[in-house]
Design brief:
Layout: H1 4-10, H2 16-89, E1 95-104, E2 117-121, E3 127-131, E4 138-154, E5 157-168, E6 171-174, E7 181-182, E8 185-186, E9 201-202, H3 206-224
Parallel strand pairs: 8-9
Antiparallel strand pairs: 1-4, 2-3, 4-5, 5-6, 5-7
The chain binds zinc ion.
């Protein structure tokens, strides 16, 4: 049977060869496009890796610089504080001397009893007794050392506290009983007569303090003459 329709349908078209060529061309083109795109991406990725590496290095360097800067800032602050403290401290000395009062036992006189009491009869005829003068020792003075036990800066003023100390077999110890005090008056070469109460006068030099102590002792000796 003649099947016209079939024959017409399967009749080779003049375009068949062209289509095949076109498909091949498109395939080649697409493949080339993909390869070139992949290569481009590969290259870009490699470049990005470099950028990332550089970025990490820059970040590390930045962190390092930040630390260095903080450190430098801290040092500058400390240096400024230290300079300010040195300026505030002025001619601060960690050890000062003060005249300390002691008493010498005087020889017993022959007017009192063994307890150095004087016995007498009151105007009303009652027996009375009182301490003999020889019981009172003669005051003498010697330099006592005071060390700076603490200090602070208050209202831009440097304040140092001094405490007496004693040296024992184990080393040095501040005396707990003595309260620390600030050295308000520091001897500056004045005449000893002009100085106030010896309790408040601090000496930077032990020799000056010793001369002052000798002067105070001589004054006490004058009193009992
Ligand atoms: Zn006496």
């Amino acid at each position: 049977m003649y099947d016209w329709e079939d024959e017409q349908f399967y009749e080779p078209s003049p375009y068949d060869g062209h289509i095949e060529t076109l498909i091949q061309a498109i395939r080649a083109d697409v493949k080339e496009g993909i390869i070139s795109e992949m290569n481009r991406l590969k290259k870009e990725n490699a470049e990005l890796q470099d950028v990332k590496r550089d970025f990490e290095a820059i970040k590390r360097e930045y962190e390092q610089k930040k630390i260095e800067l903080e450190y430098a800032k801290h040092n500058v602050k400390n240096e400024v504080r230290r300079e300010r403290l040195v300026e505030l401290m002025g001619d601060f000395t960690h050890e000062l001397y003060k005249a300390s009062s002691k008493r010498n036992v005087r020889p017993k006189c022959d007017k009192c009893d063994e307890r150095r009491m004087i016995h007498y009869t009151s105007p009303l005829g009652n027996p009375k007794q009182e301490d003999c003068d020889c019981k009172n020792g003669i005051a003498y003075y010697e330099p006592r050392s005071y060390l700076c036990s603490s200090y602070e800066v208050r209202n831009s003023e440097f304040i140092a506290w001094y405490k007496a100390y004693e040296i024992d077999a184990d080393g040095m110890e501040f005396e707990f009983i003595t309260s620390s005090s600030t050295a308000k008056i520091i001897y500056a070469g004045e005449d000893f007569e002009k100085l106030e109460d010896y309790h408040y006068i601090h000496f930077k030099s032990k020799e000056d303090c010793q001369r002052y102590c000798d002067w105070l002792t001589a004054k006490e000796a004058e009193k009992v003459k």
